[in-house]
Write a structure and sequence with these properties.
This protein is an all-alpha fold. The protein contains 18 helices and no strands. The model has no long low-confidence stretch (mean pLDDT 86).
């Protein structure tokens, strides 16, 4: 029974990834040919937009079934108990806000819950399959970006100095989300794929071009950090972290020029997010009674919402200080441990998540919300060590030779 559930779960995830381009192709077409009105525009039919909700719903159900048929480790049990207590307190305290906000909050919180539920279904072989699908659909994404660069009629996001479209999000609507996708593809290509070194280098190059075409500062900084960490050995990680930090700071300071968005780009983009976060932090209580308000879904549904502009701000609104602090310190402690043990895959994952949690609503960015739930579940199951990942690769290769 468990094997069948695992197989069904994995097939659902892979189908969801394959269908990713369909989820955003309607908005992409409208953006390219000039009929888009604003970033809240929904062009796709409801049954298309519902694909990702069906995928998450089925994964959640299968995860619960798998959990009921597994033996609990005390650490996982305590973490899950704490998180479910927090979640239930948010839900019950928000009942008076109406079912619409509950639904918006549900869509936002499901990726967090999946981390605890799906580890039984996760192994390296499955992540290798996800990587192959991602690299194939990235070709579609990148092709659309080139098309938008050359033929975008609306110039919705402005033009560069050469008169071409400045920001080209491929089969996404938001450039920052498009950059997030490219960075995620690169992460999988480098650490969770069995492709050749030449292929990894090709993806380093094309994902940089893809990130550049989105003019997303977060994507470009994330790409630079990934490249620096991947370029050094695991043994040298401790001594190289300072040079990497200095180089990243220099790269970050030049983003206005690199992206073509002007010298005030960093001040405006980062400044707005910091201002929003600080305002929400000043108003936050230990527990929240605004579950579902700090989501993009609330705006798409036309109900009352609170502007967040980042997952960290969303945590303050939807879960209160306790939820934000829990996630923040988990990230910091896991990042420190990854650096100390010299695990490049784990450290890279934490840094990517940290950058995007600070600049976008990760729980609502499909398919990245699903993919990072799987990656976090993998590391929670097998540990953070890069040697463990390498050992799993060797075992996978041996199984292939036997079969």
């Amino acid at each position: 029974m468990v094997i069948n559930i695992r197989t069904i779960f994995q097939k659902i995830v892979l189908i969801g990834l394959i269908l990713t381009p369909i989820n955003g192709i309607f908005e992409s077409y409208a953006l390219t040919f000039g009929s888009i009105v604003n970033t809240s525009t929904v062009e796709a039919p409801i049954y298309v937009k519902g694909i990702k909700d069906i995928v998450f719903g089925l994964c959640l159900i299968l995860g619960i079934i798998g959990l009921l048929n597994s033996k609990w480790r005390i650490g996982v049990f305590l973490a899950f108990f704490f998180y479910m207590t927090l979640l239930l307190s948010m839900v019950f305290s928000s009942f008076g806000n109406g079912y619409e906000h509950f639904l918006a909050g549900y869509r936002w919180v499901v990726p967090f819950i999946l981390i605890f539920l799906v580890s039984k279904f996760i192994d390296l072989e499955f992540l290798l399959k996800c990587s192959k699908v991602l690299m194939k659909i990235f070709v579609v994404h990148f092709s659309l970006q080139i098309t938008q660069l050359l033929f975008m009629q609306s110039f919705f996001y402005g033009v560069n100095n050469l008169g071409f479209s400045l920001r080209n999000p491929g089969f996404f609507l938001i450039p920052n989300t498009a950059g997030f996708f490219s960075i995620t593809v690169l992460y999988f290509a480098l650490y969770f794929s069995d492709t050749s070194m030449a292929t990894k280098w090709r993806f380093l190059i094309v994902t940089f071009i893809s990130s550049f075409l989105t003019a997303s500062g977060t994507a470009l900084v994330a790409w630079f950090v990934i490249f620096c960490i991947w370029s050094v050995s695991s043994k040298n990680m401790k001594i190289c972290i300072l040079p990497i930090t200095l180089l990243t700071t220099i790269f970050f300071s030049a983003l206005g020029v690199i992206t073509g968005r002007g010298p005030e780009y960093i001040t405006i983009s980062l400044g707005i997010r910091m201002e929003v976060f600080n305002e929400l932090l000043a108003k936050s209580d230990l527990f929240s009674d605004k579950f579902g308000f700090g989501t993009s879904t609330a705006y798409l549904m036309g109900i009352d919402g609170i502007v967040t502009d980042s997952t960290f701000a969303g945590l303050l609104v939807n879960s209160g200080l306790i939820g934000f602090l829990a996630i923040f310190f988990i990230l910091i402690l896991t990042g420190l441990k990854s650096w100390i043990i010299g695990s490049r895959p784990a450290l890279t994952m934490i840094l990517i998540l940290f950058m995007y949690l600070a600049t976008t609503s990760v729980p609502e960015a499909f398919p990245m919300n699903l993919l990072y739930a799987l990656i976090v579940a993998y590391f929670a199951k097998f540990g953070l060590s890069e040697r463990t990942l390498e050992r799993n690769f060797k075992q996978s290769e041996m199984i292939k030779k036997i079969c």
